[in-house]
Amino acid sequence: MPGDRLPYLCERLQPFGGASVFAEMSALAVRTGAVNLGQGFPDANGPDAVASAAIEAIRGDFNQYPPGIGYPVLRQAVAEHQQRFWGLEFDSDTEVLITAGATEAVTAAVLALAGPGDEVITFEPFFDIYPADISMAGATRRLVQLRPPGYAFDPDELAAAFGPRTRLLLLNSPHNPTGKVFSAAELDMIARLCVEHDVIAVTDEVYEHLTFDQNTHVPLATRPGMADRTVTISSGGKTLSFTGWKIGWVCARPELVRAVQATKQLLTYVSGGPFQPAVAVGLRLGDEYFRGLAADLQARRDLLCDGLAAAGFEPIVPQGTYYITADIRPLGASDGLEFCRSLPERCGVVAVPVQVLCDDRAMGAPYVRFAACKRREVLTEAIERLGGRANR
Ligand code: PMP
């Protein structure tokens, strides 16, 4: 947990050094036999055609170091995907870079584009690697709050976060952990400020296909003035339900891609050879696959939201992603960390406290995050276990 000191770890990384709360909660799930709704990964495989393509690639010619920017077949599939779904044009030879998941892409982008003395704006609650990436770059984070229950941000707070030292804005939409999908109007506000202050945006869009109801994903790069100043990042993990494959990508103008590649080549150089052509097959699946993925997850979101409400939580219905955040105050609790540490023993269910994903711990304290990306029978079992027994 943050706060535990590791004897050999450098000062810069001490705040991020202890076992993450995700690891702590997963270990707790194993020890207590609890249903793990903590970590966000599906408990079923992705499409057979994609798995078969990986097996074929391993039997074939994709087992040595891929080219530094990734195999052409995947770069072309990524460029086609950006055009097909979002109307964004990228040259697959100069404007697409394949990475070891979105994780490496975000890390390489932040390390490449920000340094000591620079400020990076992002939102809180945050995906846990963002503050660590900003610290590794030696830069300073400026956080803008997404306030529950609506997870709107205050436009004045966002405007005030921009200043002469602002170098990057790091945006995640659809957003983990809140499930917020930033609207076109919100993105336009962000775009205007980036243009006005000459700031580059790095966007993490790994949940791009997981949006619900009338909400649709809008890439920041589509907004006025942003095509040339946005580094758009995503990966195949969530879209294809193979989160362990760690194939991600960066799409941006050639000069930005070259800067990120210069950093990425020092991290892993290349990775995931045979998974690259397989992810290309996945990105070219028909529209019905992508529609089905979102519809299926939406049904599970509804099942879990209803179950949480019946158990006495106040769930905040997410617009997208794997996650549901829920207020624990109706259950008589107010500290999510304490609540999550005792939930496995009390109920046999694991969740993640939102406060560990915030600098402002008080804002996140009464909320916990559940993952809805599990099989229906697993969700039903969790709901039964929570029913009437989540009270403390
Ligand atoms: N960004 C966000 C917002 C995520 O939630 C996750 C996975 N939990 C990642 C990036 C990691 O993506 P990848 O597995 O492609 O590295």
Name of the top-level CATH class of the largest domain: Alpha Beta
Instruction: Give the CATH superfamily of the largest domain.
Output: Type I PLP-dependent aspartate aminotransferase-like (Major domain)
> Order of SSEs, N→C?
HEHHEHEHEHEHEEHEHHHEEHEEHEH
- Total domain units: 2
Question: What would the average pLDDT be, to the nearest integer?
Answer: 96
- The CATH architecture designation of the largest domain is 3-Layer(aba) Sandwich
Bound molecules: 4'-deoxy-4'-aminopyridoxal-5'-phosphate
Q: Work out the helicity level.
A: 40-55%
The global form is globular
Poorly predicted tracts of residues = none
Would you write up a description of this structure?
- With 392 residues, the protein is an alpha/beta fold.
- The protein has two domains: 11-45 and 288-386, Alpha-Beta Complex (Aspartate Aminotransferase, domain 1), CATH 3.90.1150; 48-285, Aspartate Aminotransferase, domain 2 (3-Layer(aba) Sandwich), CATH 3.40.640.
- It has 14 helices and 13 strands.
- It has helices at residues 21-32, 48-59, 72-86, 101-113, 129-136, 155-161, 184-196, 236-240, 254-267, 275-283, 287-310, 336-347, 361-364, 376-386; strands spanning 35-36, 96-100, 119-124, 140-145, 166-172, 200-204, 230-235, 247-251, 314-316, 323-327, 349-350, 352-353, 367-371.
- The strands form three sheets. It has a seven-stranded mixed beta sheet with strand order 2-8-7-6-5-3-4, with helices on both faces. Strands 9-10-13-12 form a four-stranded antiparallel beta sheet. A two-stranded parallel ribbon has the order 1-11.
- A hairpin with a 6-residue loop joins β9 (314-316) and β10.
- α1 (21-32) packs parallel to α12 (336-347), α4 (101-113) packs across α9 and α11 (287-310) runs parallel beside α14.
- The longest helix has 24 residues, at 287-310.
- The protein is globular, with a radius of gyration of 20 Å.
- The mean pLDDT is 96.
- Bound molecules: 4'-deoxy-4'-aminopyridoxal-5'-phosphate (PMP).
- Residues 40, 101-103, 127, 172, 176, 204, 206, 235, 237, 243, 246, 248 line the site of 4'-deoxy-4'-aminopyridoxal-5'-phosphate (PMP).
